[in-house]
């Protein structure tokens, strides 16, 4: 019982076994990371320098093209000062947009996962819902803005609903696909190991589908930004979209760029959080990321 | 060491049919009685299994050998509980089979490990599902991982292991439930030649040590000869048990066994039996 098989067969064949360590060495990984990051940093700094040079030497019109330094300056200046004078400071607009995104995204994701899960679990439900998904998927959510304004007025509701209806189809489709794509053998194996049908669904099927569901959520997050900025253009008194629109009317291009910069930073941050979540639950995908 | 007189008995006269005990009075590990199964595909009826009987003794290593399409996988899936037979019964240690269960563990061509669990967590999956005591399960998992030579890899994830190592984790994961029988459907067919040989050795040693009953599907005569106590040779269209041959080669067996005279004789006999089934098939076609 307790003896070890005399000849662990693949030991000789697998060079990783020699050290007993299946991961690449830490030093190697770090220098690899530095090399990749180094190039990215160089390319960003290069782009900023070129932008600065074009603005200062060629365009020479801060209203047409502000320099990167002026953009950051406007961002810092208006971060805690209202713009326009009757408006709100930038941090407040950022906060408002962020709340709208997070609430709309959360509601849409929950509904999408529930519908997608039901579609994967029950064939008839899939047949019932599929045509609606196929019908709404190619529609840009922005087409619903006027309708949502008529239905829900000018408050927070139409903005959150707009984000939600952009998120739902994406998350629904990726959830349904992720769950049905789990290989049948993984489920059969679970049954042979003593798991009940319910345990197999929860501990294997849904668990195995999670990384792909999160990939769908990342896509949906991108759509959410499009939706919120568009909604804030049309009907809002605060939010990053509203600031950008106002700045455009007052020819404050530096502030437009500042608004875009904030959206970029927030977008990258939220996506990074989702990527982090994915790498936490999907050890096999970590090295691929 | 087992040593049986070599004999090839025609399947039409199997062991006394209406008893689920072996001659020695033990309950059979697996008792397949009169199992039939047909498929309808595009209006065409295929009789995949026609009245199949098979009696597997506890601790026995039995191979299912036959041409492609003779219903080996179908029979294994029915035994596993993934598929329902049209007629007939299957008893696993005397209990009728109705659905998949931990008493009959299937090992697939792929190791089917859970990529989000470490090696140790994979092995402990079964006990966790069945609610077995956690510390006992943990100890047994560590012990089994030592046995399959992966004691140092408990906290590695499957993608950090080689193909052969993943397969060995799958065996540890199966054995922790103390299954009454292991069901293997061409488990080594997808492996490269070198890994295949090392996995055959691994399985021989594991079986020698644990004495789990094994039902092993293959269409490789040499593999059947090397591994099995008895080989159930099946014929196709319809899938029937053609003969049950006893492999009369002393144990423990190793790759060196393949060169021995007794192995060569057994292999020749088995090949002849298999060719009879092919002859039958051609006769049907003509
Ligand atoms: N789901 C199915 N639908 C229709 N016919 C099937 C199905 N599964 C198997 N069959 C048929 O049943 C017969 C037996 O198939 P099975 O897969 O059991 O053969 P096998 O002995 O495992 O073959 P191989 O050695 O190629 O794996 C074949 O003729 C096959 O076409
Ligand atoms: Mg098969």
Structural features, described:
- Chain A contains ten helices and two strands.
- With 289 residues, chain A is mainly alpha-helical.
- Chain A folds into two domains: 25-60; 65-288, MetI-like (MetI-like fold), CATH 1.10.3720.
- Chain A has a two-stranded antiparallel sheet with strand order 1-2.
- In chain A, strand 1 and strand 2 form a beta hairpin.
- The radius of gyration of chain A is 25 Å and the shape is flat.
- Chain B is globular.
- Helix content of chain B is 34%, strand content 24%.
- The longest helix of chain B has 25 residues, at 261-285.
- In chain B, helix 7 (221-227) crosses helix 8.
- Chain B is an alpha/beta fold.
- Chain B has a domain at 28-103 and 183-190 and 212-286: Rossmann fold (3-Layer(aba) Sandwich).
- In chain B, strands 1-11-10-4-9-8-7 form a seven-stranded mixed beta sheet, with helices on both faces.
- Chains A and B meet through helix 7 and helix 8 of A and strand 7, helix 3, helix 4, helix 5 and helix 6 of B.
- The complex binds adenosine-5'-triphosphate and magnesium ion.
- Adenosine-5'-triphosphate binds at residues 39, 41, 46, 48, 66, 68-74, 219 of chain B.
Mean pLDDT of chain A: 87
The end-to-end distance of chain B, rounded to whole angstroms, is 45 Å
In helices, the fraction of residues of chain B equals: 25-40%
Q: Trace the largest sheet of chain B across and list its strands.
A: 1-11-10-4-9-8-7
Structurally, the number of domains of chain A stands at 2
Order of helices and strands of chain A: HHEEHHHHHHHH
Q: Output the CATH class name of the largest domain in chain A.
A: Mainly Alpha
Q: Which sequence of SSEs, written as H and E, runs from N to C of chain B? A: EEEEHEEEHHHHEHEHEEH
């Amino acid at each position: 019982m307790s003896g070890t098989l005399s000849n662990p067969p693949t030991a000789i064949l697998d060079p990783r076994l020699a050290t007993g360590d299946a991961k690449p060495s830490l030093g190697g990984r770090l220098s690899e990371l530095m090399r990749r990051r180094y190039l990215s940093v160089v390319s960003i700094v290069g782009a900023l320098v070129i932008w600065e040079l074009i603005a200062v030497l060629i365009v020479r019109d801060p209203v047409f093209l502000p320099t990167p330094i002026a953009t950051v300056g406007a961002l810092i200046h208006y971060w805690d000062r209202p713009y326009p004078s009757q408006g709100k400071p930038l941090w407040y607009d950022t906060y408002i947009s962020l709340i709208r995104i997070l609430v709309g995204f959360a509601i849409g994701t929950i509904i999408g996962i529930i519908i997608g899960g039901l579609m994967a679990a029950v064939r008839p439900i899939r047949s019932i819902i599929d045509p609606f998904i196929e019908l709404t998927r190619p529609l840009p959510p922005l087409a619903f803005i006027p309708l949502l304004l008529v239905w829900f007025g000018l408050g927070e509701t139409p903005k959150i609903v707009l984000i939600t209806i952009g998120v739902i189809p994406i998350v629904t489709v990726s959830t349904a696909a992720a769950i049905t794509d789990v290989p049948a053998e993984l489920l059969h194996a679970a049954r042979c190991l003593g798991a009940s049908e319910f345990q197999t669904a929860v501990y294997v099927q849904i668990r195995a589908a999670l990384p792909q569901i999160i990939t769908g959520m990342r896509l949906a997050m991108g759509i959410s930004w499009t939706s919120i900025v568009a909604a804030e253009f049309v009907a809002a008194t605060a939010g990053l979209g509203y600031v950008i629109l106002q700045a455009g009317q007052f020819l404050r291009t530096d502030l437009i760029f500042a608004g875009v910069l904030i959206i970029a930073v927030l977008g990258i941050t939220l996506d990074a959080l989702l990527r982090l979540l994915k790498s936490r639950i999907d050890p096999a995908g970590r090295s691929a990321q | 060491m087992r040593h049986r007189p070599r004999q090839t008995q025609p399947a039409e006269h199997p062991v006394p049919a209406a008893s689920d005990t072996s001659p020695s009075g033990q309950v059979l590990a697996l008792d397949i009685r009169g199992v039939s199964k047909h498929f309808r595909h595009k209006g065409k009826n295929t009789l995949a299994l026609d009245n199949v009987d098979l009696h597997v003794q506890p601790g026995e290593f039995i191979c299912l050998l036959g041409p492609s399409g003779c219903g080996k996988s179908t029979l294994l899936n029915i035994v596993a509980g993934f598929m329902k037979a049209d007629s007939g019964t299957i008893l696993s240690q005397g209990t009728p089979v109705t659905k998949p269960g931990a008493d009959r563990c299937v090992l697939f061509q792929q190791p089917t490990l859970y990529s989000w669990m470490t090696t140790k967590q994979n092995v402990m999956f079964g006990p966790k599902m069945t609610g077995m005591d956690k510390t006992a399960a943990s100890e047994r998992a560590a012990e089994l991982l030592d046995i399959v030579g992966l004691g140092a890899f408990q906290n590695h994830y499957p993608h950090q292991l080689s193909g052969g190592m993943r397969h060995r984790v799958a065996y540890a994961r199966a054995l922790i439930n103390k299954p009454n029988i292991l069901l293997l459907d061409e488990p080594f067919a997808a492996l490269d030649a070198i890994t295949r040989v090392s996995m055959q050795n691994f399985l021989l040693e594991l079986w020698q040590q644990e004495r789990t009953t094994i039902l092993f599907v293959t269409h490789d005569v040499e593999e059947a000869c090397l591994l099995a106590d008895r080989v159930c040779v099946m014929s196709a269209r319809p899938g029937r048990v053609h003969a049950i041959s006893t492999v009369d080669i002393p144990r423990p067996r190793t790759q060196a066994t393949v060169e021995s005279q007794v192995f060569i004789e057994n292999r020749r006999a088995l090949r002849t039996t298999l060719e009879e089934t092919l002859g039958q098939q051609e006769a049907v076609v003509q």
